Amino acid sequence: MNRACFRPHAALLLVLTVLLGASSAAADARSRRPATDLGPRIADLLTAPASSSSIEGVTAAGLADLGAEAMPLLFNLLVTQRLPLGDGMQDERDTTADQEAVVLDALTRAEGRTLRSFLEQHADGSIRERLTVLALLAEIGDHGDVELVLRAASGPPQAGIQRQLVTTTECILRRDSRAYIGLKRTILRARVAVACALVEALVAVPCTSSMETLSPILGFEPALDELLLRSIGEIGWRCSACVDDTVRANVRRYLLVTDEDLVHEATLAAGKLRDHNSIPFLVELLDAEDPLVRENSLWSLHSISGLRFSSPARWKVWADAEQQWFEVEAPRCLEDLRRDDLGAIVQALNTLSSHRYRRDDIAGEIVDLLGDPDPERRRLTCLALAQLGSPAPVDRLVRHLEDEDAEVRELAWLALKTITTTDLPNDAAAWRESLSTSSRASQ
């Protein structure tokens, strides 16, 4: 084969090699740009007139384009909260909140491994350095950064560090559910101040994973028990779906301890968790010497039953009678709901809805009638649920705002307004949005 035919190609390859080499050299020169050149450029970008369109995004992109060489300068700007100015950069002024937000945005645009490697070098630094590390991890962190978060939060307790630790942990939990793995062990081995911050972050994300992390810790670290009882109650109050009988039983045993601070929290938590099995204990605690225990027990009894009695004796009579009814009569009424006799169903619904003891359990049995093909039975069910006042069937009632029967839609709407004390139009989308917004707000 004639080698001459390859000569033009060889020449072309030579030209391309030269061009690529020149481009690479230029890129290397930019990457090796001295920090003294970067300082004025950073200052210029951060002090550009606000009139130049959407300054925040443009400036953050511009700062990010300065590359890894600018990372120490940008990080130091957040640490010192000072912006060098002037040709020689001798003058300084305080950074504004907007400028710090832009710098934070720019740093989070850096390549992940490069930024994390940089943050690891500063996780044991000054308080301001550690705060900045935590703030950046709040923006980019995932389950793999939990140990780095704990490193940055170590050292003598500092209020600012603790607050930022709560925020950073909350952001990571919301971003990556894998961060829950091992968090229970982490809380138990952490010093108390750090453990408290982690617990507070879990409360800010009220969900089943948060509850499953906190509930089993009760009793393992006495210094945390008071906070854990309060936190479990808060999560259960905001997210009733997170609560099961194991959680309630874990809390209930603290109604019997001698430590009054723990009993204060346990009596409140029992009401927030709607623990019907705690009613006999709460009734007994209405006679406690501690006025706060009495007050909390009374609040919880009202929360669980929906009733208001002022006399401990009256509560005891009610609780004994209701327990007897629930064990003997309630099963017969529930059986009548499955009969084909409309009269028997009406009688059973009237009887069941007149009792507030274990009303969540009763509502859970009654609500199945909303799936009955007979619209009359669905109407009667809506009326019974409204009278019970249990929040357990709210989601099912919202679905029946779109029932094919107009009267069922109207009665489901009235039941929702009665149970939630919320005045919204008869519109399923509006109710779903309201319930979703309430859930997000609680989080």
Give me a quick take on this structure:
This protein is an all-alpha fold. It has 25 helices and 2 strands. The chain has a two-stranded antiparallel sheet.
Question: In terms of topology, how is this protein built?
Answer:
Elements: H1 7-31, H2 35-46, H3 55-64, H4 71-80, E1 82-85, E2 91-94, H5 97-108, H6 112-122, H7 127-140, H8 146-152, H9 159-175, H10 183-189, H11 192-203, H12 208-214, H13 222-238, H14 245-252, H15 260-272, H16 279-285, H17 291-305, H18 312-328, H19 330-336, H20 342-353, H21 359-366, H22 375-388, H23 394-399, H24 406-420, H25 428-442
Helix pairs in contact: 3-5, 4-5, 4-7, 6-7, 7-9, 8-9, 9-11, 10-11, 11-13, 13-15, 15-17, 16-17, 16-18, 19-20, 20-22, 22-24
DSSP E strands, number? 2
Task: Tell me the strand percentage band.
Answer: under 5%
CATH domain topology of the domain at 329-442: Leucine-rich Repeat Variant
The best one-word shape is: elongated
Biggest sheet details: 2 strands, antiparallel
* Structural class by SSE content: mainly alpha
Strand order of the largest sheet: 1-2
Radius of gyration: 31 Å
Give the rounded overall mean pLDDT. Answer: 86
**Assembly state (oligomeric):** single chain
CATH hierarchy, class of the domain at 329-442: Mainly Alpha
| SS element count, helices | 25
State the share of residues found in helices, binned by percent. Answer: 55-70%
Poorly predicted tracts of residues: 1-34
Order of helices and strands: HHHHEEHHHHHHHHHHHHHHHHHHHHH
Please tell me the CATH architecture of the domain at 329-442 by its name.
Alpha Horseshoe
Query: What gap, in angstroms, lies between the N and C termini?
Result: 76 Å
User: Considering the protein shown, what is the CATH homologous superfamily of the domain at 329-442?
Assistant: Leucine-rich Repeat Variant
